[in-house]
């Protein structure tokens, strides 16, 4: 008979659970509010998540953003602008599999490894590092003194990285994992030549060098 009433509302978002409500009569009414969530500071980054009950993992891709991360074959999300992603629901003590989806990576980047297993103590977290490196590449075109492509299979060496390759069709040879300063040599019978070239800090597509005349 005192017009007693009550109501409550719960809102669950990506980083917290918020609840609130009221109860009581018209003359004696009480309200309440509750917030639950977690804050994680790891690898110089701050993360917010719903309440972490078991264990968590922070994935780092070395400042590379937008790389998809899976935990036990389930997509968790993509790394942020700093190359980080929080997995707030890792299973404690279990060696869970963390993998990267590297297909969207630019052609001038590569992940040293794309899969790791990590077991985390209950009530704690772990940092899983996946180094992602920038790779410079170049396509060189070699021709003979008459301007014709060198024979297929002619051996080629990049001096600084000690990489060896073979001339392909149309006098083309491709090298990756190059430095800023490079030197490619051919020393095969009467074919003796070399070319030095520089590459920019990034090569979204392989840089085309040449045609290089051999002998030069």
UniProtKB/TrEMBL annotation:
Please list the residue ranges annotated as the PapC-like C-terminal domain.
Answer: 143-200
Any idea what this protein is called? Fimbrial biogenesis outer membrane usher protein
Q: Name one GO biological process term.
A: pilus assembly
Which InterPro entries does this entry report, sorted A to Z?
Fimb_usher (IPR000015), FimD_plug_dom (IPR042186), PapC-like_C (IPR025949), PapC-like_C_sf (IPR043142)
GO cellular component entries: cell outer membrane
Please name the taxonomic classification of the source: Bacteria, Pseudomonadati, Pseudomonadota, Gammaproteobacteria, Enterobacterales
One function term, GO molecular function aspect: fimbrial usher porin activity
């Amino acid at each position: 008979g005192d017009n007693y009433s009550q109501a409550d509302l719960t809102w669950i978002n990506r980083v917290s659970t918020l609840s609130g409500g009221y109860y009581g009569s018209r003359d004696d009414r009480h309200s309440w509010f509750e917030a639950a969530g977690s804050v994680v500071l790891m690898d110089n980054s701050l993360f917010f998540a719903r309440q972490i009950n078991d264990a968590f993992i922070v994935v780092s891709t070395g400042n590379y953003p937008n790389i998809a991360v899976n935990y036990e074959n389930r997509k968790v999300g993509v790394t942020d602008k700093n190359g980080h992603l929080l997995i707030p629901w890792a299973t404690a003590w279990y060696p869970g599999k963390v993998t990267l989806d590297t297909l969207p990576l630019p052609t001038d980047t590569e992940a040293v490894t794309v899969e790791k297993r990590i077991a985390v103590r209950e009530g704690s977290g772990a940092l899983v590092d996946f180094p992602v490196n920038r790779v410079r590449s170049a396509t060189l075109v070699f021709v003979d003194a008459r301007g014709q492509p060198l024979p297929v299979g002619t051996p080629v060496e990049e001096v600084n990285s000690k990489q060896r390759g073979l001339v392909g069709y149309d006098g083309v040879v491709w090298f990756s994992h190059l430095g800023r300063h490079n030197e490619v040599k051919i020393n095969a019978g009467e074919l003796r030549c070399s070319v030095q070239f520089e590459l920019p800090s990034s090569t979204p597509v392989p840089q085309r060098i040449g045609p290089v005349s051999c002998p030069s």
